[in-house]
Design brief:
Blueprint lengths: L24 H13 L38 H5 L26 E6 L5 E4 H7 L3 E8 L4 E11 H8 L7 E6 L19 E5 H4 L5 E6 L2 E2 L9 E3 L12 E7 L6 H6 L22 E4 L5 E3 L7 H4 L15
Parallel strand pairs: 1-10, 4-11
Antiparallel strand pairs: 1-2, 3-4, 4-7, 5-6, 5-10, 7-8, 7-9, 11-12
């Protein structure tokens, strides 16, 4: 983000394994365990693959075939070891430090303009929802992309549970704050906790998805366990991790990166190859796990689902700011 590591997206060719996940997930999961055991990747990166998670029985969730990717899935080991999670460090190799995050007990608060504010434990919340798997592409503002099998539930189901009042126009989301486990939060120049926001219309769009699992099992901590957002038509920084609070409000929330540098990280942050980041082009992206660079698509290729929400904003920086 602010600190750009030159060619930080480069992945050794040896990590670009052939993709067999889609064909046989169960076999792949077994295989992933043995890769870790064989020393291909530290076991710790696979920490979420064990059965200790109280919701492990819900995975793998049934795939929703509506969401097509036309690209290979990013190998799990690439994804597990290349992350943005500034709470645990401002570089990509946070998978070890992120294991310090306790993800049970975990409570999620719903407040602001709702019928009745409440708190709910993550396991109760997950079991109230019907999990499904969706294959989504993720386009980071840093011009790299991945394709991930997320498991979770539509955000509109969560909004329905929250019962917002009609005056609520936005939902503001917040990550945990605990500098004793997340040392990155000791960096006082960042406005912790991490905050993101969507309009209610965006939050109830069928693509907006709350993620609880990945690669057919509960999500690893580095992905933002136990609850993270996926809005694939928006740049990756909107995909807030490890959420503890949803606040419904009539005021547009100021998101973390917007508070750090509004000129570079806007509220809308819709993927748009024509709107350059002030310091680099967004015209193309590096596909992680491969040596391929592909053209970036408007709304990351998800225009059929979301373009109607941004009528009149098409060719302006307003799709971004
Ligand atoms: N959420 C929190 N709480 N902290 C972060 O630093 N980084 C964001 C987003 N969510 C971030 C976050 C950015 S910049 C990206 S690109 C994605 O998470 C990366 O998700 P991944 O690590 O699963 O690829």
């Amino acid at each position: 983000m602010l600190i750009k590591i030159a060619n930080g997206w480069e992945i050794p060719e040896s990590l670009a394994t052939p993709e067999d996940v889609m064909l046989n997930r169960r076999a792949f999961l077994a295989g992933a365990g043995s890769i870790a055991a064989a020393g291909g990747l530290p076991d710790i990166a696979f920490a979420a693959a064990d059965n200790a998670d109280p919701t492990a029985d819900l995975y793998p969730a049934k795939r929703n075939p509506k969401f097509k990717i036309a690209r290979e899935l990013t190998p799990e080991k690439v994804n597990l070891t290349y992350n943005n999670f500034y709470e645990f460090g401002s570089h990509k190799k946070i998978y070890k430090t992120a294991q310090a995050l306790p993800i049970r007990p975990w409570e999620v608060v719903f407040d602001g303009d709702v019928e009745k504010p409440f708190k709910i434990g993550i396991d109760e919340l997950i079991r109230k929802m019907t999990l499904q798997e969706r294959l989504y592409r993720l386009r980071c503002v840093e011009a790299w992309s991945m394709t991930i099998p997320w498991s979770g539930f539509p955000m509109k189901d969560l909004v329905a549970l929250a019962k917002p009042l009609s005056k609520a126009k936005y939902v503001r989301m917040e990550t945990f704050k605990d500098p004793s486990v997340a040392r990155g939060q000791k960096a006082a120049w960042y406005p912790w906790p991490y905050v993101e926001g969507l309009t209610i219309q965006e939050a109830t769009n069928e693509l907006a998805f709350l993620v609880t699992g990945a690669y057919g099992k509960p999500m690893a901590k580095q992905f933002g366990a136990p609850l993270r957002l996926a809005v694939p038509w928006k740049y990756g920084f909107k995909h807030i991790k490890s959420i503890v609070r949803f606040t419904f409000t009539d005021k547009r929330p100021k998101s973390f990166w917007e508070a750090v540098q509004a000129r570079e990280y806007g509220f809308w942050a819709n993927v748009n190859p024509k709107v350059s980041h002030p310091r680099w082009s967004q015209a193309s992206e590096r596909v992680l796990g491969t040596d391929v660079r592909v053209p970036t698509q408007i709304f990351n290729g998800y225009g059929e689902f979301v373009a109607h929400m941004y009528k009149g904003m098409e060719d302006e920086r307003s799709t971004w700011m």
